[in-house]
Sequence to fold (384 residues):
Amino acid sequence: MAWAGGAVAYVPFLTILLPIRVSAMVGADRVQWLAYMTFWGAVASSTGGVLFGWLSDRSGVRRPWIIAGLVGAVALMLCVPFMRQPLQLLGLIVLWQLALNMMLGPLSAWAADHVPPEQLGVLGGLLALSPALGSASGALVTIPAIAGPNRSLALVGVLVCACVLPALVFAHPLDTSLLAKVEQHHRTPPGRAARAMWVARFLVQICEATLFAYLYYYFRSIDPQWNASSIARLFSIVVCTAVPAALLIGRWSDKRARPIAPLIVTALTAALALMAMAAARGPEAATAAYVVFGFATTIFLSLHSAQTLRVLGCAKRRGRDLGLFNLTNTAPSLIMPWLTVAIVPRFGFSRFFAVLAALALAAAFILVIAARRLKNSRNASQNA
Fold:
């Protein structure tokens, strides 16, 4: 629930509320300004994830950093209505991303501290609740009868606190000495498999980040009658239906000891869906293709987040290492805006989605290599 609180913070804000505010503020230059905000926000997010994860390692505590990040992120979000110029809004987004990652960096390490390897698949399935609740909050805060433009931000803040505070109050650590013994026998040494996992997620995240930031504009280009509320509801339906599937697949991967196989299948499915989106000419075909894409990438990213723990190194550097791995979530936003600006205005979304499909396909092939290396490493460890 606490990790889902992070998604509740950024999903409705970055996918719906921020694009609407940017459109109202700068009009025709909205794509370029949204690209600037996405780029510099990603720089702040990348820096904050590594920095605050490392600081939580050094301090030996996670909870105070999570509390400070929660307070800062909510307070800065409530300041958005007071921004009058796009540069002011850009600066606020940078500070907000730093505060949000002050919460998320230590929070991810805090969870990883206490999850045994044989439950990583189930953990991945549970992490699918994060985008589901994030998208559900997006659908909620865009209902006109419930919240207006400014009240939506306050409602998001309330929802974030409701998700995160129970963990801060009631969560208790497990016996870390016992977990450390289990970790010594099950954890795979980092190496080429870790790099392959990093690159594969990076490529899929470029695809997901593009749809995340430009989903509103894409559907409006297909059908101008689409509004923010209908797009938010579609996004919510897609990720919510992926939750039970992710749980089942995660449990299956634990029982069969095949952690990478679901990642390969979902990456291939995402590539096919992007090809369909590139070929779509009407709202029905575009919607169907996006549903498949969103379903596959939600499962992929959730399971990948958990299976990443198999290839991390020393537990004492877990916050820092997870911050570095988190660059696969934030670094694509450094590339995606400029790629979008270079291709979409000249060639449209269809050509762009064809490029993204090639990236997802490459990720699937890289994961095949990672699966083989993990298997060889496990066999060598058992023989030793």
User: Anything to note?
Assistant: The radius of gyration is 20 Å.
